[in-house]
Structure formats: structure tokens, C-alpha cells
């Protein structure tokens, strides 16, 4: 096939790896990906990040997620991972702790109720990783607003 023939085609990603968790749900992106047959893999599904000045974890500190976890006898991490699973999202979780690894797998034999899903849906949204390391006076992105589409 000649190189010029490729200009007739639009190639879409088949997988999009993005930050996603109950505190940064990416609703518009999830809808776009679903409509276009793009799978999502969530990174930072438990809200951990190495950037930013606040050094807090709004996911693991969420009162809503704590309440749901307590009522179900599950961990907050399990609630987060089960929520992602129910959204049809794959995820990458980092853990070196064997007990946590076992807990992370134990999300398949139970589900979140519609009331619990609604509670999670109402959690105020905020990006956990603003990608500040990409901001530079010498680069194309001089501010966080230049980099993101308004959903920070």
C-alpha cells in the first residue's frame, strides 16, 4: 500500500490509559470511548500520585467511600476497584503487600447497589495528577490551563 493512501484513514486508539477513580470519574471521556469502541485502562485507581503539592489521597480519605466500605465489610480499595470494574474499565494497581493483592482480587463475587453507585456518582470531582511536570515557560504548555481542556 502506498504511503499516500494512508491519508484516507483515521486511526483511533484501541485502549486509552488515563487517570480514573471515583474522585476523577472521567464521565465525558468514558462516554466518548464507549461510543468509539475504545477500551479504558485506569491508572491511579486508588488515587495515589507522586505529583502535586498537597500530597493527600482524596480517594482513600473519601467519607463516601469509607461509608460504603464499612457497610459492605470491604476495604476502600475494593470499593474503588469494584466501581471501575462495573464501569467496564480495566485498571493497574501497584502493591507489594500480599494481603492487599488478595484483597484487590476479591472484587468479583459482589456488587455495588444502585444507591451506592449514585453516592459515588455524587462525589465532587478533581484530577489527582495535574501533570505539573509538563508546565514550562520554554515549552508549549505554560500553565495547567494550556495543558488541560478545562476539566481540572
Describe this structure in words.
The structure is a single chain. This protein has helices at residues 27-35, 63-72, 76-86, 98-105, 114-121, 144-147; strands at residues 15-19, 39-43, 90-91. The chain has 152 residues and is mainly alpha-helical. It has one domain (1-144): NADP-dependent oxidoreductase domain (TIM Barrel, Alpha-Beta Barrel). The protein has a 3-stranded parallel beta sheet, covered by helices on one side. The radius of gyration is 18 Å and the shape is globular. It comes from Cannabis sativa. This is NADP-dependent oxidoreductase domain-containing protein.
Strand-helix topology:
Blueprint: E1 15-19, H1 27-35, E2 39-43, H2 63-72, H3 76-86, E3 90-91, H4 98-105, H5 114-121, H6 144-147
Parallel strand pairs: 1-2, 2-3
Protein name: NADP-dependent oxidoreductase domain-containing protein
Domain NADP-dependent oxidoreductase: 15-123
GO molecular function: oxidoreductase activity
**Percentage of residues in DSSP E strands:** 5-15%
Q: How do the strands line up in the largest sheet?
A: 1-2-3
Helix/strand/pairing class, anyone?
A: mainly alpha
**CATH level-two architecture:** Alpha-Beta Barrel
Number of strands: 3
What is the CATH C level class, in words? Alpha Beta
Q: Whole-number average pLDDT?
A: 84
Shape: globular
The helix content, as a percent range, equals 25-40%
Number of helices: 6
**Poorly predicted ranges (pLDDT <50, ≥5 residues)?**
none
Order of helices and strands: EHEHHEHHH
CATH topology category name: TIM Barrel
Amino acid at each position: 500500500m502506498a504511503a499516500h493512501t494512508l491519508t484516507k484513514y483515521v486511526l483511533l486508539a484501541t485502549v486509552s490509559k488515563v487517570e480514573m477513580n471515583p474522585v476523577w470519574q472521567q464521565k465525558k471521556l468514558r462516554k466518548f470511548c464507549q461510543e468509539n469502541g475504545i477500551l479504558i485502562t485506569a491508572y491511579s485507581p486508588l488515587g495515589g500520585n507522586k505529583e502535586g503539592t498537597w500530597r493527600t489521597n482524596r480517594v482513600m480519605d473519601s467519607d463516601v467511600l469509607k461509608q460504603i466500605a464499612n457497610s459492605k465489610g470491604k476495604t476502600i480499595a475494593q470499593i474503588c476497584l469494584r466501581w471501575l470494574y462495573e464501569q467496564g474499565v480495566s485498571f493497574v494497581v501497584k502493591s507489594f503487600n500480599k494481603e492487599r493483592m488478595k484483597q484487590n482480587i476479591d472484587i468479583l463475587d459482589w456488587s455495588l447497589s444502585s444507591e451506592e453507585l449514585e453516592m459515588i456518582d455524587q462525589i465532587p470531582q478533581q484530577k489527582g495528577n495535574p501533570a505539573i511536570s509538563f508546565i514550562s515557560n520554554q515549552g508549549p504548555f505554560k500553565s495547567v490551563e494550556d495543558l488541560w481542556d478545562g476539566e481540572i
